[in-house]
């Protein structure tokens, strides 16, 4: 039986979900019963997103209609673009996303005319628009057109780089989005469900998720992993540096997982993608350094890489700036958050756990002039 006094709700069952399995039998990860390996290999991100939102894989007509709705939902209200222009150029991109979602809530509030599913699709469609409009405006003063006719992964890369991406790059990012789309009661999803349980609106639940994902112990780990990898110029330097960090008892981000005990089933997939991108570019530096760090961590700490670790080198080879890694996580995880918000509402009960009080015993009030 789980120790109910354990910090961080370790091993505590906090609710039920039909959306995904995580860490069952040590390795499994499924979305709506489908293996993550099959989804990454055989499905587009749009198919995976539809599966999470609607509980089934789409047929051809459903997928075409879904893709069309996403394309139509990419442009933002003019006033939201204005708000994004007013944000400081040095804002954290996660703050930009959170602000953009909150602003959109004011112009397109949830109500009879906008269902939860419609809002979910709107946010999945326009999250890249929010992020990259701000990015380009403050970087070069350009007001980009945020509509493209492509899938989510290609759309993101087209907005970022201003050109049609290499098909291999678009496919690599598409698979990455599938890997990041859902992960049961992770911190940001559970936080979004807590907000939902109060009968708050859809946008508030999403901004809760964004705020939670911002932390280095959750979504920010891929950015920290990239900073680590880029700190070294060679595998040998990386090995010596990481061993020194371990002697200093410093945390190495991107290794181990709160739920998985054997390996992260997503890690081998993203590692293979990183290797293909390195081969495609004929540039193995980041991959070789990453692989050496992985070897040191397994040898010294028996820790395996999680999804965030090899995502870092893959994203860098796609030309994605480090400060956009976690916001890109949001672009993907919006599908999972939305599915959980809808599921929470379907059989809602306020999430309000008890706490184990550790403060002083009952005390007697003393007048101000008598206090020491």
Outline the structure in words.
The protein has 372 residues and is mostly helical. 57% of the residues lie in helices and 3% in strands. It is built from 16 helices and three strands. It has a three-stranded antiparallel sheet. A hairpin with a 2-residue loop joins strand 2 (28-31) and strand 3 (34-35). Helix 4 (78-86) packs across helix 6 and helix 5 runs antiparallel to helix 10 (202-213). The mean pLDDT is 93.
How would you summarize what this structure contains?
With 372 residues, the chain is mainly α.
Major sheet: size, sense and barrel closure? Answer: 3 strands, antiparallel
What is the number of strand segments? 3
Global morphology: globular
Instruction: Compute the separation of the termini in Å.
Output: 46 Å
Instruction: Indicate the structural class.
Output: mainly alpha
Mean pLDDT across the residues is 93
Q: Rg from C-alpha positions?
A: 22 Å
Strand arrangement across the biggest beta sheet: 1-2-3
Roughly how much helix do the residues carry, as a percent range?
55-70%
Percent range for β-strand residues = under 5%
Low-pLDDT ranges: none
> What is the helix/strand order?
EEEHHHHHHHHHHHHHHHH
Count of DSSP H/I helices? 16
């Amino acid at each position: 039986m789980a120790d109910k006094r354990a910090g961080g709700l370790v091993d505590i069952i906090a609710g039920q979900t039909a959306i995904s399995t995580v860490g069952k039998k040590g390795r499994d990860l499924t979305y709506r019963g489908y293996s993550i390996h099959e989804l990454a290999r055989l499905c587009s991100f749009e198919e995976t997103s539809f599966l999470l939102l609607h509980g089934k894989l789409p047929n051809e007509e459903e997928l075409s209609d879904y893709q069309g709705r996403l394309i139509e939902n990419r442009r933002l209200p003019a006033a939201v673009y204005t708000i994004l222009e007013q944000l400081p150029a040095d804002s954290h991109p996660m703050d930009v996303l959170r602000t953009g979602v909150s602003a959109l809530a004011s112009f397109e509030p949830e109500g009879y005319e906008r269902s939860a599913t419609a809002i979910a699709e709107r946010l999945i469609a326009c999250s890249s628009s929010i992020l990259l409009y701000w990015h380009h405006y403050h970087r070069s003063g350009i007001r980009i057109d945020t509509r493209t006719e492509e899938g989510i992964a290609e759309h993101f890369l087209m907005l970022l780089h201003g050109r049609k991406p290499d098909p291999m790059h678009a496919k690599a990012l598409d698979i990455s989005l599938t890997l990041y789309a859902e992960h049961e009661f992770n911190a940001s999803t559970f936080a979004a469900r807590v907000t939902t349980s109060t009968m708050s609106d859809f946008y508030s639940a999403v901004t809760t998720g964004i705020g939670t994902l911002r932390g280095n112990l959750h979504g920010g780990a891929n950015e920290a992993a990239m900073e680590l990898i880029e700190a070294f110029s060679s595998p040998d330097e990386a090995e010596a540096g990481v061993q020194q960090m371990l002697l200093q008892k410093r945390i190495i981000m991107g290794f181990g997982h709160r739920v998985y005990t054997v390996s992260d089933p997503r890690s081998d997939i993203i590692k293979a993608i990183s290797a293909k991108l390195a081969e495609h570019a004929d540039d193995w530096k980041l991959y070789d350094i990453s692989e050496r760090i992985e070897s040191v961590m397994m040898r010294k700490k028996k820790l395996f890489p999680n999804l965030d670790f090899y995502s870092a080198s893959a994203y860098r080879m796609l030309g994605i700036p480090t400060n956009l890694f976690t916001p890109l996580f949001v672009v993907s995880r919006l599908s999972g958050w939305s599915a959980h918000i809808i599921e929470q509402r379907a059989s809602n009960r306020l999430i309000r756990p008890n706490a184990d009080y550790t403060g002083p015993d009952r005390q007697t009030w003393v007048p101000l002039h008598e206090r020491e």
